[in-house]
Write a structure and sequence with these properties.
The chain has about 300 residues and is an all-alpha fold. The protein has 2 domains: about 1-155; about 155-300. It is built from 10 helices and no strands. Helix 1 (about 5-30) runs antiparallel to helix 2 (about 55-85) and helix 5 packs antiparallel against helix 10. The chain is globular, with a radius of gyration of 20 Å. The two termini are about 25 Å apart.
Length: about 300
């Protein structure tokens, strides 16, 4: 059931969540995660802190923007439930987004309450940001699919083509793993910034565990990029989406190399993260389109 207004609102919700993700990276990169102290949802024990450091302002702004994103997703769910039938795909994905925005907030709260912020170097922080990344990817996928189905695209129907499904599942898992490794790498770069590429390479094998994990991300990223480019030649998807995904993958690999060469400045980390989210969103579109095309063939047969 096409609904352009609903689809446009879903896209606006997606953009708002992307902005929150990027601002979260600013919080981490500037060490502002402890700006509100071990208080949640209040900041320094206040609803609106009237004084504090720059870190307090940055962290409070991030929380405020996250609150806006939560409200937007909540309105998306209400709109979908009130106007779309129970069996509608956009309704189901909107409800999924509502669940995921709640878990997103809870993981963020755990980071603050357990004080896995600022200069913390614990395994708990590494695990929590990995879970945060995975939940964020699922949230972005749910909102993306809500907009996709709202404009009239059909949802995949069983039976799925088994070969296509396997290729796409492996691609999705690989992207989540690469993203999680990237989140841990970014944390290591923030806490232990290298003075040079040579020093960074030395620390990759001799530093603390967060730094020793740093070499894994580029290896996984290049491997996943090659796999996704190979998969695009073996699944049926809209040409514009396949072309966009190929372009984004190539640009992202280049951006990763530039990020390493520049020793990961904050602005380049944000560009790298935005490209990673864009690759994921485009992959989701390619995947659902490929499964839908295959299911249309399989059902009549």
């Amino acid at each position: 059931m096409p609904d352009r207004r609903f689809a446009r609102y879903a896209l606006a919700t997606l953009a708002a969540n992307l902005a929150v993700v990027l601002f979260g990276a600013v919080v981490r990169a500037t060490g502002s995660g402890a700006g509100c102290g071990a208080h949640w949802p209040s900041c320094q024990g206040e609803v609106i802190p009237l004084s504090g450091t720059g870190a307090t302002f940055v962290e409070f702004t991030h929380r405020a923007s996250s609150g806006v994103a939560i409200v937007m997703v909540a309105l998306l769910v209400v709109w979908a439930v009130r106007t779309r039938p129970r069996s509608d795909a956009a309704r189901k994905t909107a409800i999924a987004a509502g669940v995921l925005i709640v878990t997103e907030a809870l993981i963020g709260a755990a980071l603050v309450l357990f004080e896995w912020v600022g200069e913390d170097q614990s395994v708990g922080r590494a695990v929590s940001i990995t879970l945060h990344l995975g939940n964020t990817f699922l949230l972005l996928a749910a909102v993306t699919l809500t907009a996709w189905f709202a404009v009239g695209h059909q949802a995949p129907r069983r039976p799925f083509d088994s070969a296509t499904r396997r290729l796409l599942i492996l691609g999705a898992v690989a992207l989540v793993v690469v993203g999680a490794a990237g989140a841990v790498t970014a944390l290591g770069d923030t806490l232990f910034p290298p003075d040079s590429i040579a020093a960074g390479l030395h620390d990759d094998f001799a530093g603390v565990f967060l730094v020793r994990l740093r070499w894994i991300h580029p290896v996984l990223a290049v491997t996943t990029a090659g796999y996704l480019l190979w998969v695009l030649g073996r699944v049926s998807a809209p040409e514009w989406a396949a072309t966009m995904l190929r372009t984004l993958i190539i640009v992202q690999v280049g951006a990763g190399m530039l990020n390493i060469a520049l020793l990961a400045p904050v602005w380049m980390q944000l560009v790298h993260l935005l490209l990673a989210d864009s690759v994921w969103i485009t992959f989701v579109i390619v995947g659902v389109a490929a499964l839908t095309d295959r299911s249309r063939v399989a059902v009549p047969a």
